[in-house]
Amino acid sequence: QLVCVVPSSMKQLVFYYDVVCPYAYVASTLVEQLAVRNSVKLVWKPVLLAGLYSGTSAPQGKAGSATDVMSGAKQSIVMQDLERLAQRHGVPPLAPSSHPQKTLYAMRLLAACPDMSVRSQLTHSLYKAYWREGAELTNLRLLQKLTHSHNWKVDVADLVQSSEASELLRSNTDDALRHGAFGVPSFWVGDRLFWGVDRMFLVERYFGNRTAAPLRLASPRPSVGKMTFYLDYSSPWSYLAAMQLDKFVRSIQPMKINVEYVPTHQGALFREIGTPMVERVLK
Length: 283
Known about the structure:
By secondary structure, the protein is of the alpha/beta class. The chain has 13 helices and six strands.
């Protein structure tokens, strides 16, 4: 189990994010309480997701989305998973007017904000505008309005087009790349990087919280259910899942789960649904 008592001098949590990412949005609603629970300093560090894609030569390209290179089947599951994740954490339904939007100006604005408290509040406002209110974050008037609502008196148009703001955002993105980040949300703790909102409980474990665990999607019900487990013995992820199945089934009592094990061939599955990883898997 990942449990490490981090020295007090290292009790700092760096949160890398871009408001264009819905998973980072969900993480932004959780990260402050995580920091409070574990008595750590939280550093909001805005980055440009497109810069991370460019710096890691991501297959979707600098201007693409991670879902661009997914098969249709995976895209469908990912969207269902996102909806369940948001609902489980009490995040209102996601309703952007368009996605993905260019968030360069919004992220430069956040990177240039010198006050961490204002930066966090402005971050929440930008996430709300993008994901709940259907606003376009390329609108400089909107950015100006949101900035003034947090008593930060600055000329947004001048700031976001300045070399200073550009360099600050580039520096943050380079910092994330040096630590191994390839997407958001990412979390830097001491000397280790964690990625993904669903791995935030591992961040807590690393801070020494042995009881941290992912939330259930729903409360167990006293009934009988069936779960089909498709596995391939060559897959490490399949192996990890198999090692947790018995514990999982016991944990949701009084609901009784009957597990059906169905062996599959991962390479054939990838070939059928279409994925850029097919050749690497089959070799």
